[in-house]
Amino acid sequence: MLLAVINGNHKKGDMKVYGLLGKTLSHSFSQRYFSEKFQNEHITNCVYQNFELKDLEKEIPRLKNEPALSGLNVTIPYKTDIIPFLDNLTDDCRQMNACNCIKIIGGKWTGYNTDVIGFERSFAPRLKSFHRKALILGTGGASKAVRFVLGKMGIQFLEVTRNKKDHPSAINYDDITKEIFNEYNIIVNTTPLGMYPNLDAYPNLPYQFVTDQHYFFDLVYNPAKTLFLAKGEANGASIENGEKMLVIQADESWAIWNS
């Protein structure tokens, strides 16, 4: 049903199935990344596929009955919604209330968050001494790992949202003045704005105030340069997309699944 038909010389029971759990996954590189990994490293008893789910309440129980399923990555919009379906959580995952990696042993699902290590390792190299405060665009599951890492690094931050009613500690995009934009010169986009196929979308920011003191980081990796990054770069900002973060967190997921 939910698992793809497994072809080849191996018996179905010998195969380990991994995959990406999300809602709309046409933008994702994860399946290609792991499929190429399995081919390049001659791993013949594993497959990786996408699981596009529309109703977790109905579809997660069916997934839990698949004996070949050995691990999952989780992407937007389910990084927080998946929590009630897990049997165990790591401390970091529980603290953030966000999960993007699930290890499955004996039918038990344990939640991890590899976004933390992925973001920290890909974000840190471009930091300068004057990068001390950040604006985090978005308040979803991905933003929780960013908040966790920035707090760990001693970087102050403000969250920016389009719905301040649900997030009273955040500010609206319209609240971003020139003074705020200059003071909070790290801008991290955790929203899907600009992600394929919506290439013309971008966060509503006062880009005219961008300088070479700014650092724009976009968790989006498809396309490689979103309009958000392009607008920052055009005015001298340092930029980084989410591709390195993807690779790091994917490798960390693989290590967790096989530990």
CATH hierarchy class name of the largest domain? Alpha Beta
**Known CATH architecture of the largest domain:** 3-Layer(aba) Sandwich
Give me the side-by-side strand order of the main sheet. 2-1-3-5-6-4
Structural class: alpha/beta
Residue ranges: pLDDT <50 for 5 or more in a row?
5-11
CATH topology of the largest domain: Rossmann fold
**What is the percentage of strand-forming residues?**
15-25%
**Largest sheet, described in full?**
6 strands, mixed
Supply Rg: 19 Å
Report helical residue fraction: 25-40%
Q: Which labels suit this protein?
A:
259 residues; alpha/beta; Rossmann fold
Can you give a write-up of this model?
There is one protein chain. The chain is of the alpha/beta class and 259 residues long. It has 2 domains: 12-113, Rossmann fold (3-Layer(aba) Sandwich), CATH 3.40.50.10860; 117-245, 3-Layer(aba) Sandwich (Rossmann fold). Helix content is 30%, strand content 22%. The protein contains 8 helices and 12 strands. It has helices spanning 30-40, 56-64, 91-96, 115-123, 141-153, 178-183, 227-234, 243-257; strands at residues 16-22, 46-52, 69-74, 88-89, 101-105, 108-112, 133-137, 156-161, 171-172, 186-189, 215-218, 238-240. The strands form 2 sheets. Strands 2-1-3-5-6-4 form a 6-stranded mixed beta sheet. It has a 6-stranded parallel beta sheet with strand order 9-8-7-10-11-12, sandwiched between helices. Helix 1 links the parallel strand 1 (16-22) and strand 2 (46-52). Helix 4 (115-123) packs across helix 5 (141-153) and helix 4 packs antiparallel against helix 8. The longest helix is centred in the last third of the chain and has 15 residues, at 243-257. It is globular, with a radius of gyration of 19 Å. The two termini are 29 Å apart. Residues 5-11 have low confidence and may be disordered.
